[in-house]
């Protein structure tokens, strides 16, 4: 009978002779395999420890992505708005007709994983010749990594409203151009308000009274998507007048101000008051934006705690609905400074590692054209930051009125540390779930303290 | 007989894959864990700072670890007991038993994301099936905010995990039970043993190897429940469903702290190894006794 395995081969009839010989061979082979593995591991460690060399793609433009004889340059455009694909397809077709030597390849990644995908795509320079990004923490991370091409002085910048492109500036340079303008404040049902004779509230007491009247009349006053975007959106309008210092979040991140200060605890208390009085739908922390949007579209809820970007989708669900924007004023009338919250987002940038910057610039210049921006805005239902654009839909016209009002840039986007931002939105969830506002603020401050040290 | 040296060449593909997909990422991760890499800039060596932060300065990591242990205990206990119980009921190869085994196995073939979407909708407090059915059968008082209540969300997900994988463990236990010789049962029943005594003295000792596999596999599966939790709650509300894998993801891809995430991953690997080792020891001791 013969028993074999890798290290010992034992032949009963031959006895120990072969056993010893095999032992010797297997010992040598074991040493060889071990040494080879060790060398391979060492080589991998050396490769891992070595400095990263920059990716290729600096300087020279390449005119094609493949074989000789091709004149066409293909640029890659990355963003997260799947709902805009149809319009972008039309615009890209027009761009390619006007620029036959340039082809645009568009890739869309869901917003939740956008940064994760963007990071890997931008680094090697082959993708994201033109890419969209969020303001705030994402812009900080990408600009720190040197991934934005400096657009300062480009001709097409003049097409934008100067005050609306500041979010894409850093150290006096223009690195990205915010393309969209959104208002991150609750949407309300004009029809329900008219039916109940409600007017837009000018202070906190009026806001509470409005909610109570809606509740008494069988409506959900505020559809609050607590499971996803609700906390991050609603905190903005709730804090905008409680602390009007534009530097407040920078101070919190440096440890110069705290979340346990009066202004933040008051903000959380007011959110808790709305939840405790039943002005949010039942179990709001288990509701996502799609369900909350449906409650609003079905006219079961009178307000939707999201922003103007939901209005086009709501209209598709219910073409008869008439929508407007309002913001809760959390102070007395005489103390109110801001009327609402705006964000300039969908910031277009050129990948600094791209080898097709010239073609990328042409595409951005095309999108910056007033007529093109108008088609985009009316086709997607989103406001844009380009000057003098004419809006054709009632929702856009309603939202465009807010350009002349005193609105504040979304404070949440001024938090550069993602963990601190999450601590802030989590504290909103905490108070909606019933936690004491002071405790929720203290828990959030604990996370801020853990992250302040590293800065 | 002379062993051909050519035989050793057969281990090269496996060894290559092992080195490429396990050793290299692990070693690379270990190196990264000593840096402050943000995914874009250069890697700066910071020594043990990330480990110190993880153990001392990061309350969310500790919360994620606690949640993970609670999740693991809930899943291991209920999944093991349920799959063992069902397997005892369905061990005989009758047509109805085979049908039920297949029925219980069905959720296993669904992807975790599909399971998450289905249950996310079912658990919805406003339009979901669970609260709706409870209301219609007069049990409205039992309707909950399944995924929105910080006290309940984690256990709601434990239920989904157990629902999705009990069938898989059932198959392992059935195989283990079917390998027990009938003669052992005949012998104990001849001696006057009750059903419980037969289970205690025959079934359980003989099925312990299968139980070891089930417990170890379920433990590792519960630590890997990233996709289910990510899709259902994203770690919320209020970090109540944040487990180590989701927290590592958030640290790396939302906070851009790849070096720190690598350190967390090393800690994660060590924790799983310690727990699995402990389980093997416990079950091996049980088997020996």
Helix-strand layout with pairing:
The complex is a heterodimer of chains A (455) and B (289).
Chain A: E1 2-4, E2 9-11, H1 16-49, E3 73-79, H2 85-98, E4 102-108, H3 114-123, E5 130-133, H4 137-144, E6 169-170, E7 173-174, E8 177-183, E9 187-189, H5 190-195, H6 204-216, E10 220-223, H7 230-239, H8 248-254, H9 262-276, H10 289-297, E11 301-304, H11 311-317, E12 323-325, E13 340-350, H12 357-367, H13 370-380, E14 383-384, H14 394-400, E15 407-409, H15 418-432, H16 437-452
Parallel strand pairs in A: 3-4, 3-5, 10-11, 13-15
Antiparallel strand pairs in A: 1-2, 5-13, 6-7, 8-13, 8-14, 9-11, 9-12
Helix pairs in contact in A: 9-15, 9-16, 15-16
Chain B: H1 11-32, H2 49-57, H3 59-89, H4 95-105, H5 112-122, H6 129-136, H7 153-178, H8 182-190, H9 195-223, H10 226-232, H11 244-254, H12 258-288
Helix pairs in contact in B: 1-12, 3-7, 3-9, 4-7, 5-10, 7-9, 8-9, 9-12, 11-12
């Amino acid at each position: 009978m013969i028993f074999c395995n890798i290290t010992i081969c034992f032949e009963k009839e031959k006895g120990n002779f072969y056993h010893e010989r095999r032992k010797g061979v297997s010992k040598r082979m074991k040493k060889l395999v071990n040494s080879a593995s060790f060398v391979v591991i060492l080589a991998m460690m050396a490769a891992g420890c070595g400095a990263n060399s920059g990716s290729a793609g600096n300087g020279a433009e390449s005119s094609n992505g493949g074989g000789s004889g091709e004149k066409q340059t293909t640029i890659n455009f990355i963003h997260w708005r799947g709902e805009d694909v149809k319009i972008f397809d039309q615009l890209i077709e027009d761009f390619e007709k006007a620029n036959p030597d340039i082809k645009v390849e568009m890739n869309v990644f869901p917003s939740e994983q956008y940064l994760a995908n963007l990071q890997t795509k931008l680094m090697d320079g082959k993708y994201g010749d033109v890419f969209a990004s969020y303001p705030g923490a994402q812009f900080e991370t990408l600009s720190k990594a040197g991934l934005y091409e400096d657009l300062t002085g480009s001709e097409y910048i003049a097409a934008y409203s100067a005050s609306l492109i500041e979010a894409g500036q850093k150290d006096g340079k223009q690195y990205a151009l915010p393309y969209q303008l959104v208002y991150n404040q609750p949407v309300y049902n004009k029809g329900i308000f008219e039916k109940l004779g409600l007017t837009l509230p000018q202070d906190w007491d009026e806001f509470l009274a409005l909610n109570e009247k809606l509740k008494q009349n069988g409506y959900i006053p505020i559809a609050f998507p607590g499971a996803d975007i609700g906390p991050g959106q609603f905190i903005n309008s709730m804090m905008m007048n409680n602390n009007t210092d534009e530097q407040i979040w920078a101070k919190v991140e440096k440890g110069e101000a705290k979340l346990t200060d009066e202004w933040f605890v008051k903000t959380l208390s007011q959110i808790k008051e709305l939840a405790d009085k039943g002005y949010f739908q039942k179990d709001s922390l288990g509701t996502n934006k799609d369900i909350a949007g449906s409650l609003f579209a079905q006219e079961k809820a009178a307000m939707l705690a999201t922003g103007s970007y939901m209005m086009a989708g709501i209209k598709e669900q219910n073409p008869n609905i008439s929508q407007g924007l309002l913001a809760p004023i959390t102070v007395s009338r005489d103390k109110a400074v801001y009327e609402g919250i705006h964000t300039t987002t969908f910031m277009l940038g050129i990948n600094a590692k791209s080898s097709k910057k010239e073609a990328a610039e042409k595409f951005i210049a095309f999108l910056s054209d007033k007529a093109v921006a108008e088609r985009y805005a009316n086709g997607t239902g989103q406001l844009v930051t380009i000057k003098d654009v004419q809006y054709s839909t009632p929702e856009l016209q309603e939202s465009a009125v807010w350009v002349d009002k005193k609105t504040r840039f979304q404070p949440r986007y001024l938090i550069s540390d993602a963990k601190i931002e999450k601590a802030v939105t989590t504290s909103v969830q905490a108070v909606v779930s019933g936690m004491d506002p002071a405790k929720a603020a203290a828990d959030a401050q604990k996370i801020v303290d853990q992250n302040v040290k590293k800065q | 007989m002379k062993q051909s040296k050519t035989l050793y060449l057969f281990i090269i593909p496996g060894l290559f894959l092992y080195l490429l997909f396990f050793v290299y990422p692990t070693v690379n991760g270990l190196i990264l864990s000593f840096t402050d890499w943000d995914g874009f800039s250069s890697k700066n060596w910071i020594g043990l700072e990330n480990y110190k932060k993880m153990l001392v300065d990061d309350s969310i990591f500790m919360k994620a670890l606690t949640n993970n242990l609670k999740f693991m205990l809930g899943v291991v206990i209920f999944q093991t007991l349920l799959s063992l119980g069902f397997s005892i009921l369905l061990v005989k190869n009758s047509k109805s038993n085979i049908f039920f085994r297949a029925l219980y196995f069905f959720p296993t073939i669904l992807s975790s994301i599909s399971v998450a979407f289905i249950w996310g909708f079912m658990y919805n407090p406003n339009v979901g099936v669970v609260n709706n059915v409870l209301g219609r059968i007069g049990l409205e008082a039992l309707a909950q905010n399944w995924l929105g209540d910080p006290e309940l969300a984690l256990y709601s997900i434990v239920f989904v995990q157990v629902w999705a994988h009990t069938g898989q463990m059932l198959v392992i236990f059935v195989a283990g039970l079917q390998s027990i010789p009938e003669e052992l049962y005949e012998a104990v029943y001849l001696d006057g043993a009750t059903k419980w005594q037969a289970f205690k003295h025959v079934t359980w000792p003989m099925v312990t190897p299968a139980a070891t596999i089930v417990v170890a596999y379920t433990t590792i599966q519960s630590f890997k429940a990233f996709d289910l939790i990510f899709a259902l709650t994203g770690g919320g509300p209020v970090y109540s469903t944040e487990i180590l894998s989701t927290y590592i993801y958030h640290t790396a891809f939302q906070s851009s702290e790849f070096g720190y995430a690598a350190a967390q991953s090393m800690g994660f690997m060590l924790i799983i190894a310690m727990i699995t080792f402990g389980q093997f020891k416990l079950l091996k001791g049980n088997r020996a006794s």
